[in-house]
Amino acid sequence: xxxxxxxxxxxxxxxxxxxxxxxxxxxxxxxxxxxxxxxxxxxxxxxxxxxxxxxxxxxxxxxxxxxxxxxxxxxxxxxxxxxxxxxxxxxxxxxxxxxxxxxxxxxxxxxxxxxxxxxxxxxxxxxxxxxxxxxxxxxxxxxxxxxxxxxxxxxxxxxxxxxxxxxxxxxxxxxxxxxxxxxxxxxxxxxxxxxxxxxxxxxxxxxxxxxxxxxxxxxxxxxxxxxxxxxxxxxxxxxxxxxxxxxxxxxxxxxxxxxxxxxxxxxxxxxxxxxxxxxxxxxxxxxxxxxxxxxxxxxxxxxxxxxxxxxxxxxxxxxxxxxxxxxxxxxxxxxxxxxxxxxxxxxxxxxxxxxxxxxxxxxxxxxxxxxxxxxxxxxxxxxxxxxxxxxxxxxxxxxxxxxxxxxxxxxxxxxxxxxxxxxxxxxxxxxxxxxxxxxxxxxxxxxxxxxxxxxxxxxxxxxxxxxxxxxxxxxxxxxxxxxxxxxxxxxxxxxxxxxxxxxxxxxxxxxxxxxxxxxxxxxxxxxxxxxxxxxxxxxxxxxxxxxxxxxxxxxxxxxxxxxxxxxxxxxxxxxxxxxxxxxxx
Length: 585
Description:
disordered N terminus, Methanol Dehydrogenase, Chain A, 3% helix, 585 residues
């Protein structure tokens, strides 16, 4: 993750929330989606109940009505505006249930639209304080649904449950202190009646944490910090320290060590593990914190019942480039070494595509998925560690800044937050990647509560004149790239694949595009009027297949893209839900 300019006070003024007094809590049974429904989301095409279209977040649909032979005929069914002056980035993934589409919007808003007509049913605006310090735009990536509730997080680090039919508040809980730099932008995940959430704020020295809360009351069940030395909690009682104090951190550095869990996680019912990625260590200046700095830039396998860490794999030990390890680990099963294995795939910000044994966190494969990587020249499969290129680590600062190095990928990552997709039809992963590098240097820094804690400076540069974004189809068996589509601007939105031999993703130029999943041929595109940085979904209703995506340019690129930001500064902001289908013959 990375720090962004603080927003002006008038940009975060409290928003009027059109809600009455909190409604009484209703039992989940019979009121809407259950735990079983959420776990079965992959197999119920009439709904989209989870972030990722299933607990494993493979973002794959078995629907074939819209396919590679007819997608060229797809047309808009309707569009619904998020309205107002609060445009900014719209990174949400829609949820669809019982004739309603739920989407979150910038500035911590939640909307319910009629799934047939696009008519707004209700809108909730969180009342945000003036002093919030979100790192990388005022985005929100989605909600969770359970029983009679729709649940999402806010930029002032609160978790809010609303009645899904009325938009009225059921419960509202503070999960962290926004004055210390914490915020919340990820979509919550629900496992066994628990709302599983992470936090944002690693650029402020805020310590990453995973929390499990009762879905009906919002009360904390367990918490698990992601930095060694911090105590976990279970039902209000100490539940063991994470790792071992000072094992990989010196002195008191672990107290402000970063490792924010700002993207949320995935869940694997087969192993009963939550896979949660962790962000960069704080500060960025690696010379100030010798050691591996566990468990930053890692994936953690966490028991959802106890909050205990069962295994951890660190993709960038002693990170010095802001290579957050938050990117999703997607569970999948495949033959490997002559036997069927329970695996997980992760396209990391550091430029490597990892295959991990998801039962124990052991590295199986690490291959580059971008054209240029300077910080390491491969991974040792026995130790699981990278082969560093020491000359390409930013130099230690003296009185002022240290030696500048050119690094690729840039800190915005070979892949940032935008989720990839795994096709059960082709067996390939479809990864939205970016080709850029950066000049980076270290500077002196001291921790101050609520202030940016970087100790580094940077300038991002594109690697090529004709493209930055590249959608790549990757064979997990070999790590080889089967096909790629190059885009002039960075790719910053999620990917959807379907059994109709299709792959969907959006571009900052405003297009939602469809590709042949096997060949990569572009089959269809539609311009939504603003950059697409949301995640598309698909479902069926009354015998028709629909595809939906949020449109609205923003996110980290225009804030922190350097030369890249200048190249895309002409793109208009927006805020709209677009829904498509085939025309009736």
